Amino acid sequence: MRVIKVGTRQSALALTQTGQVIHELERLCEEYNLPFTFETHKIVTKGDRILDVTLSKVGGKGLFVKEIEQALLDQTIDMAVHSMKDMPWELPEGLIIGAIPKRVDSRDVLIMKCGTSLDDLPPGAKVGTSSLRRASQLQALRKDLVIEPVRGNIDTRIKKLETEGFDAVVLAAAGLHRMNWEDRITCYLPKEVCIPAVGQGALAIECRGEDQELLALLTKYHHEETALHVRAERAFLGKLNGGCQIPIGAYAERDEESGVLKLTGLVGAPEGDPILIAAMYGEDPEQLGNAVADKLLEAGADQILDRLRG
Question: For the whole model, what pTM was predicted?
Fold first, then answer.
């Protein structure tokens, strides 16, 4: 019986979603009579250690994954469970994404002190988010809103509605769903209103490319349709060389009528002006991601990106 050591961040959400992944893998092991057991290994990342600075100012890519990836390379763990939106475009040599499970809700949500929608926020309302992408789109919608950074785990950010005078905080629906905290959601922000982060709502199961035994199991957990969507979004991210420092968003979906893959991408200035959005259709996810990125670059996204990168 092989013990698979599973690396994860130590937040309540990370541990919960890792537990959910392990539960599904245990079910598959039982179904296919595979000789694996699993144990969780908590790892602290740079993004977890630095909580008094916004992500955009911490700098670098992979703020929530680098230490975990190093543990994979050092073979102190065998696989890792990440939120896909935390994954940089490039993976270290020797590591691969062995499975992408079925995605949950990719939208952003508002949790508000009063009211039931974005329109109910009073002029000058204080809204908390650590995401430049969310801040950019909210400022484009409501220039009167005061956007202030808020870091910490989900529960900490929600509590700041009371402790730090926020009128609302913006969070990913996926995390609240995984924690069974849907009742805390005031309203969902439609993707047409707030384009999600690349990979939002999806998980990445990362492992060493040479571990064929583990990969054979992960293949049974992989959800190909989610993977196609995520591949398009990540190709878009890679072409723009994006990270936490830049307001970039993208989501892929199947067109209901044609069945063709559609990708919508965004690049925006942090203050919400300009905001550039493009959507295209295609069959090949990587080509589609590159094409949407090229379309935005032609529209002036390169100027926004150059200015933000200094």
Answer: 0.94
